[in-house]
Amino acid sequence: MEKKIAKHLLDIGAVFLRPDQPFTWASGIESPIYCDNRLTLSYPEVRKEIENGLADIIKNEFKDCEGVFGTSTAGIAHAAIVSEILGLPMGYVRGSAKDHGRTNQIEGRAIEGSKVVVVEDLISTGGSCVDVVNVLRNAKCEVLGIVSIFTYGMKKGIDNLEKNNVKNVSLSNLDALVKVAVEYWFIKESDIKKILAFRENPTNSNWKNI
Predict the structure, then answer these.
(1) Is the bond leading into 24 cis (omega within 30 degrees of zero)?
(2) What is the pLDDT of residue 112?
(3) Which end of the chain is more exposed for a tag (fewer CB within 10 A), N or C?
(4) pLDDT per residue as tens digits for the range 161-194
(5) For residues 196 and 20, is the Cβ–Cβ distance under 8 A?
(6) Whether the Cβ atoms of residue 34 and residue 85 lie closer than 8 Å to each other
(7) 62-116 pLDDT per residue, tens
(8) What is the SS3 string spanning the chain?
(9) Please, what sign has the CA dihedral across residues 35, 29, 75, 164?
(10) In the chain, pLDDT over 90 holds for what percent of residues?
(11) 103 burial via Cβ count (<10 Å: 0-12, 13-18, 19+)
């Protein structure tokens, strides 16, 4: 499944690998990879495999799940489709509380004591999804974990999840992606070291010289 989803992401351009012409992230970091999993929503066959895959993870890894919450905004559509597949309640968590009306940060009903799973599209440093988990915990929900489409596997992200006692299960990951990318000529085999070196230390641009 990891390699199959990786191939889909590459085929539809949801993931770009450019080790020789790095992307610049909003943070200013130069990166050989750019990921936009929102594109998966525009490809019904890919979307179907992803949503069924996320639903299967919840059924297998978080069997007691009673509700699904998406991260805002990328996880909302995926959470809605997955909750429909599973027949579970759905909601989402805003990046911050509204400044009007009921000033909600959680949209949908977060029932105290309910066991819920967070749906995210991409795990990098883990900061934003941990924030969502903490909002739900503050609402007295029991967060069983996170399901996500793709993870970079960055040390900072892994450490952040562990520190906050959050389990994440992703459909695919960077290790699987680079193997598939070489197999189907998206990159050269010599590019793998550069890409993985970036993951180990994203703020250090020395990976470009490997």
Answers:
(1) no
(2) 97
(3) N
(4) 999 999 999 999 999 999 999 999 999 999 999 9
(5) no
(6) no
(7) 999 999 999 999 999 999 999 999 999 999 999 766 555 455 899 999 999 999 9
(8) CHHHHHHHHHHCCCEEECCCCCEECCCCCEECEEECHHHHHHCHHHHHHHHHHHHHHHHHHCCCCCEEEEECCCCHHHHHHHHHHHCCCEEEECCCCCCCCCCCCEECCCCCCCEEEEEEEEECCCHHHHHHHHHHHHCCCEEEEEEEEEECCCHHHHHHHHHCCCCEEEEEEHHHHHHHHHHCCCCCCCHHHHHHHHHHCCCCHHHHHC
(9) positive
(10) 90
(11) exposed
Mean pLDDT of 27-52: 95
Q: Is 181 exposed, middle or buried (0-12, 13-18, 19+ CB in 10 A)?
A: buried
Token pair listed for 3: 């390699």
Q: What is the pLDDT of residue 101?
A: 47
pLDDT at 103: 57
- The amino acid that residue 62 corresponds to is F
Question: Is 54 in contact with 82 (CB distance < 8 Å)?
Answer: yes
Q: Which residue is it, tokens 């749906």?
A: 119
pTM value is 0.94
